[in-house]
Design goal:
259 residues; alpha+beta
Length: 259
């Protein structure tokens, strides 16, 4: 019969073996989870599926927005054809965080939405120093409001991605393979989808002389394609204020109007 000391030593040894087995099991599960995550972020969604997602999703639904952001932020994501204008050919490189608000932490009692969703205050024009325009038009407002309010001019949008233009001769772009392998240049404009109305549009980027602050380029995502000539409509040609979006008690999403 083992002594107390021998019995205790045996229990310690068994416990150590059990902990070692648990540690190996946990490491195996962690490694498999990492492999699944890596496989997911490295696997692009098919272009057709991404277009269908954008065409049918409810942008007010937080789960749907989360799924879209997951796709947009993967290491590999399909670009989207847009069309041509004034001899230039365009495409969208999806991304959820190309724009930043002028005020990242506004004074509001409401829940802030993630910054893949932002708002535009169209009744607030910004005074922009000629040499200091930034990606989000930081500058001094000519108007400041006291609170967030659905009645203020503007809208809420989901960020879709960066707009690029074909950097070669137009005749050298004849197929999706050409588009995938060719040179594209940044327009320093960003594409967005409005929540309240159909309409795909542009917002400014880093260019020091952007003449268009906001413009509509299509009624819906399925309008976008190569071979399509588009015009800019509903143009706002002055700098506007980009703001955070907030969630109301009724689960609606509105823009903050605090400058």
């Amino acid at each position: 019969m083992p002594t107390d000391a021998e019995f205790l030593a045996l229990r310690i040894e068994e416990s150590a073996k059990g902990l070692d087995a648990l540690s190996k099991r946990a490491e195996s599960l962690r490694r498999r989870a990492d492999e699944r995550l890596k496989a997911r972020i490295m696997t692009p969604i098919p272009r057709k599926e991404l277009i269908e997602m954008l065409a049918t999703m409810n942008f007010n639904n937080i789960t749907a927005r989360g799924k879209l952001v997951d796709v947009q932020q993967r290491c590999v994501v399909p670009w989207l054809p847009v069309g041509d204008r004034d001899g230039e050919i365009y495409r969208i490189i999806p991304g959820a965080y190309g724009l930043l608000p002028d005020q990242q932490n506004p004074k509001t009692e409401r829940e802030l939405a993630s910054m893949n969703v932002l708002g535009v205050n169209t009744n607030v024009q910004l005074v922009i120093p000629s040499q200091s325009r930034k990606a989000h038009f930081s500058g001094e407002s000519t108007k400041s409001n006291e609170s967030d309010d659905m009645e203020q001019g503007g809208f809420v949008f989901h960020q879709i991605g960066d707009l690029e233009y074909w950097g070669d001769e137009p005749e050298n772009l004849t197929s999706y393979e050409d588009a995938a392998n060719g040179d594209w240049l940044s327009t320093e404009l960003h594409c967005r989808q409005r929540f309240d109305l159909d309409g795909w549009g542009l917002l400014p980027g880093k260019g020091p002389d952007q003449r268009v602050a906001i413009a509509k380029i299509a009624d819906k995502i399925t309008d976008l394609r190569f071979g399509r000539t588009f015009k800019l409509t509903e143009v706002i040609d002055y700098p506007v204020e980009l703001v955070r979006a907030v969630v109301t008690p009724e689960s609606a999403i509105i823009q903050v109007t605090v400058a």
